Amino acid sequence: MRPLQSRNCQRWSMTTMHQEQRTSGLWLKTEMLSQKFCKFRPRILIDVSHIDMTTTVLGFKISMPIMIAPTAMQKMAHPEGEYATARAASAAGTIMTLSSWATSSVEEVASTGPGVRFFQLYVYKDRHVVAQLVRRAERAGFKAIALTVDTPRLGRREADIKNRFTLPPFLTLKNFEGLDLGKMDEAADSGLASYVAGQIDRSLSWKDVQWLQTITKLPILVKGVLTAEDARLAVQAGAAGIIVSNHGARQLDYVPSTIMALEEVVKAAQGRIPVFLDGGVRRGTDVFKALALGASGIFIGRPVVFSLAAEGEGGVRKVLQMLREEFELTMALSGCRSLKEITRDHIVTEWDTPRPRHLPRL
């Protein structure tokens, strides 16, 4: 993944945006799983000749606790876009989450073959559009809805404003193509921000989580939780799971990184529903950190899009295999033979270590 990320991917114009975010320093603080934040406490003299990384998510058995997060407009990265990602996820035996703002429709992704797939949902002002989209995903064989709840308005994405970001004219938001909502018009600043302001429902509330349960039998995952208070409300609202996410650190500045918010959310959920982490994972060691802090699995976004831009389906397969191998090695060197053996005792965080006290001078 690291060589793929640094490669010059001319097909993907959004690379410039991410480079600007990374060099600003703020993105590093709020997105990446800092090496200083967490240290391992490995156990030794344990037979690790067999490592079992399989797990079950919402009743579906997958090969590893590493899944694919929703990322929009993937055909900007590669001509095959979401088709390639779906095939790579299926080959790896894991879950792909399709974005509402995909450049391939739910039906098109379903046509790529078998696989466990979730659908990420933005709630539009027109609830008939939302209901229609959810039912289409259900008919197409998607297994869960990941409701994004942290975007009543789009955050100030200055690179998008500078670049006057919009979709290229040869691409559309395929899930809305027949509803006259698939095009993103050019704007004086960001075409995406204008689109969100015109279409996304700012009145979204916890009542809508319950409303979704009345129009679909699919389990609802609440994506975008960062606090214990909202974790408890998600449980009360009947959510099937929680995804700890800060939207790739692109919504609100100075929110915590996902790894720093994770344990608070896990403790508030009290094991009643699974908690997942989305964002900041770059190595198999990061997966281990998240599971040690109580996550039931993790989702990756940027690594998939970088690798998709570089090598298409093969790149996504490669990044999933790299993370799998790194995670398996981390488990072995920590003395863990299965996911249930990964515990909080295997790591120490910066808030676990007593800070040195400075004695007053005489």
From TrEMBL:
Record-given protein name: (S)-2-hydroxy-acid oxidase
GO biological process, one term: defense response to bacterium
Pfam families: FMN_dh
PROSITE patterns the record matches: FMN_HYDROXY_ACID_DH_1 (PS00557), FMN_HYDROXY_ACID_DH_2 (PS51349)
GO cellular component: peroxisome
Record carries keyword Oxidoreductase: yes
Domain of life: Eukaryota
InterPro entries membership: Aldolase_TIM, Alpha-hydoxy_acid_DH_FMN, FMN-dep_DH, FMN_HAD, FMN_hydac_DH_AS
Reaction(s) catalysed by this chain's protein: glycolate + O2 = glyoxylate + H2O2
Binding site for glyoxylate: 122, 157, 247, 250
Positions annotated as active site in the UniProt record: 247
Gene from which this protein is expressed: LOC110772101
Homology family: Belongs to the FMN-dependent alpha-hydroxy acid dehydrogenase family.
Keyword flag Oxidoreductase: yes
Enzyme Commission designation: 1.1.3.15
